[in-house]
Automatic annotation (TrEMBL):
One of its GO terms (cellular component) is cytosol. One of its GO terms (molecular function) is ribose-5-phosphate isomerase activity. Transmembrane segments: none annotated. Pathway: Carbohydrate degradation; pentose phosphate pathway; D-ribose 5-phosphate from D-ribulose 5-phosphate (non-oxidative stage): step 1/1. It catalyses: aldehydo-D-ribose 5-phosphate = D-ribulose 5-phosphate. Catalyzes the reversible conversion of ribose-5-phosphate to ribulose 5-phosphate. Signal peptide: none annotated. Keywords: Isomerase. It comes from the Bacteria. This is Ribose-5-phosphate isomerase A. Belongs to the ribose 5-phosphate isomerase family. The gene is rpiA. InterPro entries: NagB/RpiA_transferase-like (IPR037171), Ribose5P_isomerase_typA_subgr (IPR020672), Ribose5P_isomerase_type_A (IPR004788). CDD domains: RPI_A. The lineage of its organism: Bacteria, Pseudomonadati, Bacteroidota, Flavobacteriia, Flavobacteriales.
Amino acid sequence: MNLEQEKEIAAKEAVKLLRDNMIVGLGTGSSSFYAIREIAKLVSNGLKIKAVPTSNKTKELAEALNIPLIDINLINSIDITIDGADEFTSDLILIKGGGGALLREKIVASLTKQEIIIADSSKEVKQIGKFKVPIEVIPFASNYALNQIKILNGIGKIRMTGDTPFKTDQANNIIDADFGLISDPASLSKKLNEINGIVGHGIFIGLTSKVIMGKGDSTVIFD
Ligand code: 5RP
């Protein structure tokens, strides 16, 4: 089994949790792609859901696959969200944002009753931080934020697409910050939240109900 197959197995397991009339958050990234494809099949077979995408890319995919969408500002909660992660620990601390959608993903997760993370087995870590923490910053504050990250002993770099800064769906920049292995993710999360101009970061704590990890041809659950 390769990692792509593990993502697909995890995605298929996660969509079994969907029920009629649920509001469903749709994640962003390659693992989420498998879930969205499965959800589209269920919808075409009569499952009645309304979905909230976590990025413009996911919105386009959901529309192309005829998954009914609902405006996030018309709802007060989301029943279940299926999303991916870049790293996770067994106590459900995550790094997300490799695809740059961390801000909407965090907002959707915050509204969600059952946040299900799907992952291949390469994403499980003892301590987060090998994957650089994606941090969304308004362009005006980019240099300020880089300097503040340095004060927190991080080495930040603006994410680029070729010669130009990568732009999020909010037209912001992403700083990928290396803090080494993070011994106190809650403290770092709080300190990053306090930096003016940073609108979100990829450390997710207390937002996840369950991780479904593909491992070989089966799944392992962390909850
Ligand atoms: C996007 C994310 C993704 O969930 C994360 O990067 C994992 O992606 P993939 O499933 O492609 O490995 O946080 O912002």
